Amino acid sequence: MANIIIPQVEAKEKSLKKYFTGKPCKHGHLSERNTSNGICEQCSIINTASWNKRNKQKVREIKRTYRINNVEKIKIWDARCYQKNKLTRNEAAKKWAANNKDKIRIIKKRWSDNNSDYRLNWTKRNPNASREQARNWRKNNPERSYEISKRWKAKNIEIVRYNTRKHRAKRAGTPGIHSISDLKEILRLQNNKCAYCRIKFTKLIIPTLDHVIAISKGGTNDRNNLQFLCRSCNCKKWSTDPIEYAQRIGLLI
Hints:
This protein has helices at 8-13, 41-54, 56-69, 71-84, 86-99, 101-114, 116-125, 127-140, 142-155, 157-172, 180-189, 231-237, 242-248; strands spanning 18-19, 33-34, 208-211, 226-229. It is mostly helical. The termini are far apart.
């Protein structure tokens, strides 16, 4: 077709989409022209690229609308294109991923934030796979895993202390359990003050958890056997019997 000279009028009569005059256009391009408007293919490509550059937002909207209205068609086209260029696309994807790690991290985080329910449900349905996935990630990213863990522990110091106490009690075979909400309730009932000296807890005077009857003396890890003391009182009491200690500091006769 490109080598056959045919006028525009004849191309319209034959319902051809393109025609060739054998002469360059006003911009010097020697190529086929569109029958509808007489513009050559090279000029059309240049004009389209220029318009797209000036109307990026509009182009995005057009593409988005097309994708929404042609979901099945795009799936078929993508599958056919992928099979045809499988090796090339895989190599290109690997190369892009290697050069855009930060961008991929941002995309994954955005997806995770917008699909938190899906991720949570998947974790519940696949607990073993989820644990294995997390274990492999920590193994392959030790430094980043350490930094994330460090930041989380700094923001959740009470949870860290609670888990430490729970594991310690479990290893020792201590009976009884309590929750973080139990600890908050105990602190509220004590009016955020030490159970013995009644000093108010602040950022400088940190509450420390104490077993009323020490675990070494047969005490349990239940809520009823817990109280909050200031560090000074906790060190003085240590594993002393609560009645004996109260008598020592003059709270009991």
